């Protein structure tokens, strides 16, 4: 089966700044594909090229087998986009936001009204259907933006940081809906800064930094192969611990207060450390995506 | 912009731009009372002030070798300036708000509409808005018996052309201003001088010849000429020159406006 999105050597520059530097990836039909990366990594820029809002500088990018340069309208007809920044229409009510958006897709008014109701119910917004946009909390706005992205029943749903700034309840609701949509067979492209979100929603993901893809794969495979099974974390570690760890041949990461040892045998590492240092400063846990993320992208702040 | 560039730009505009027109219309009619009140009330204020005030001093003015009542002279000027203000301010301040603060266009271009469609829709809406206000104002002015029908009915379709021109002019500025306050500059450099010196409130032939020449370069002069002749119930052959000027100017301004907006928004 051909890929829904296929990028080869995709590049985007703004003047002299390379925002996306020759990335290649392919998203299969029906999967949830994630983009992780620090601020300024190039996630939004990549996403904008996919939904034909930003022209590509070089490389190849096709969506549903059509080149983004050749058939933007045909591509856009079949995708739904929830952008990172809020751009709901403040001049309209919640419901009218959906029906006006449906009109951009040429959906007849009667059908649009039905669709709006269905989507507002799906996203738990029906009670607020007549509210003005400025009366909505950030979480409700995001849910409405997702509902709006579904108005044309897209084959590909693009969600650029769909849960940033949401409370835990709203995040879980959004995740639940995303899972439902995926089960319905939609292809989903998602960017996020939340590791738990990526881990639990994405079938595959890439980690991007400085406009490049560092790794690609299924989250648990990536963690297993690049970090290991477990992480031993030492708080307020003694100054000679890094040297000891190096001597033991462990891979580890450290900042000023904490040291993380990536390993497949956490118990053994823990026991070795506990022999030398106070054990209450030391914990063993499952390795996660965040360990991989920090390992790959470093710890310095961005932007 | 090359000729091929113009061709590509024109081809990127489709009938889908009507969706944007509909969007703006829907917003307009949510608050239709507040939108329609000014064009109804404004001419009454002007006509009272100018009619009872200045009109007491200047009963008639000589216009094209004929004496015309002062209020009958300025009434078409009010219509012309109304079209200009409505269309120009729509594609400047209002378009800027939608573009920059509301990010409305970012959302719309993720649908099958192109950015050119969106801009064309903005232009068509501004044109329509100018025409609606002009028509509403005509109703008010007609109560003073200052418009000659049926000729005056042609003012309505004509204001579509005039509106398109000022909408295009406005969009050009929106494509280049750094921030919304910057519209003060074109407003005071172009719009206010046109408002005052386009034969709107006094016949241009009282001005020195050099000033008349400049006034004849201003689009509003030609808009006022056409509306005045139609309002006075006449259709002299030399209106063709005014029309020709406006027909020649409106499309390039609109295309330039779309081009500048595209340059601004597509990064
Ligand atoms: N319109 C633009 N003009 C100039 N530079 C831009 C533009 N848009 C993005 N950039 C730059 O491109 C780089 C990538 O930005 P992008 O928005 O794609 O990052 P991101 O991964 O989405 O970040 P975040 O997590 O903060 O949303 C950044 O350095 C950004 O400053
Ligand atoms: Mg982003």
What is the compact description of this entry?
Chain A is 36% helix and 27% strand. By secondary structure, chain A is α/β, with parallel strands linked by helices. Chain A has 2 domains: 5-223, P-loop containing nucleotide triphosphate hydrolases (Rossmann fold); 228-287, Alpha-Beta Plaits (2-Layer Sandwich).
List the helices and strands and how they pair.
The complex is a heterodimer of chains A (303) and B (267).
Chain A: E1 5-14, E2 17-27, E3 32-36, H1 43-50, E4 58-63, E5 66-67, H2 72-77, E6 79-82, H3 94-104, H4 109-122, H5 138-149, E7 156-160, H6 168-183, E8 187-192, H7 195-201, E9 204-209, E10 212-217, H8 219-226, E11 230-235, H9 241-248, E12 251-254, E13 258-263, H10 266-276, E14 282-286, H11 289-297
Parallel strand pairs in A: 3-8, 3-9, 6-7, 7-8
Antiparallel strand pairs in A: 1-2, 1-4, 4-5, 9-10, 11-13, 11-14, 12-13
Helix pairs in contact in A: 3-4
Chain B: H1 3-11, H2 17-30, H3 32-57, E1 60-62, E2 67-69, H4 70-101, H5 104-108, H6 115-142, H7 155-174, H8 184-197, H9 209-215, H10 219-231, H11 239-265
Antiparallel strand pairs in B: 1-2
Helix pairs in contact in B: 2-6, 3-4, 3-6, 4-6, 4-7, 4-10, 6-7, 6-11, 7-10, 7-11, 10-11
Could you explain the architecture of this structure?
The complex is a heterodimer of chains A (303) and B (267). Chain A is of the alpha/beta class. Chain A is 36% helix and 27% strand. In chain A, helix 3 crosses helix 4. Chain A has 2 domains: 219 residues, Rossmann fold (3-Layer(aba) Sandwich); 60 residues, Alpha-Beta Plaits (2-Layer Sandwich), CATH 3.30.70. In chain A, strand 4 and strand 5 form a beta hairpin. In chain A, the strands form 3 sheets. In chain A, strands 6-7-8-3-9-10 form a 6-stranded mixed sheet, sandwiched between helices. A 4-stranded antiparallel sheet of chain A has the order 2-1-4-5. In chain A, strands 12-13-11-14 form a 4-stranded antiparallel sheet, covered by helices on one side. Chain B is mainly α and 267 residues long. Chain B has one domain. Helices cover 73% and strands 2% of the residues of chain B. Chain B has 11 helices and 2 strands; from the N terminus they run H-H-H-E-E-H-H-H-H-H-H-H-H. A two-stranded antiparallel ribbon of chain B has the order 1-2. In chain B, helix 2 crosses helix 6 and helix 7 packs antiparallel against helix 10. The model of chain B has no long low-confidence stretch (mean pLDDT 93). Classes of the chains: A alpha/beta (303), B mainly alpha (267). Adenosine-5'-triphosphate binds next to strand 2 and helix 1 of chain A.
